[in-house]
Amino acid sequence: MNAAQIEVIGLIAGTLTTISFVPQVWQVWKSRSAKDISLGMYAIFVSGVALWLGYGVLAGSAPVFLANTVTLILAGAVLVMKIIFDRREK
């Protein structure tokens, strides 16, 4: 397997794992509720994704960089909505 094929596998994997957050973002946005989502889990996850993004930049890995940029936006959106919607419910 050559480097280009490996890069394609990385891009496909990153795309699939990244778009898996779209239904969650949509559901939270549509319902305006994130009461069943763990704040701690999303805070830790977003921190980890930010570090993966930094790793992707430093390693010069396009799949890692691209996937984690979009994942950070999506998971970060859920985290922000969790904080905002929980405050409104109280």
What features would you describe in this structure?
The protein has 90 residues and is mainly α. Helix content is 84%, strand content 0%. It has a single domain (3-89), classed as Monooxygenase, CATH 1.20.1280.290. It is elongated, with a radius of gyration of 15 Å. The relative contact order is 0.19. The model has no long low-confidence stretch (mean pLDDT 94).
Which key phrases capture this entry?
Monooxygenase; 90 residues; mainly alpha; 4 helices; single chain; elongated; 84% helix
Helix content: over 70%
Fraction of residues in β-strands: under 5%
Tally of separate helices: 4
Question: How many strands in all?
Answer: 0
What would you call the shape? Answer: elongated
CATH architecture: Up-down Bundle
Cα distance spanning the termini: 55 Å
Name the average pLDDT.
94
Secondary-structure element series: HHHH
Short description:
By secondary structure, the chain is mostly helical. Helices cover 84% and strands 0% of the residues. The protein is built from four helices and no strands.
Architecture blueprint of SSEs:
Layout (H helix, E strand, L loop, with lengths): L2 H17 L2 H10 L7 H21 L2 H28 L1
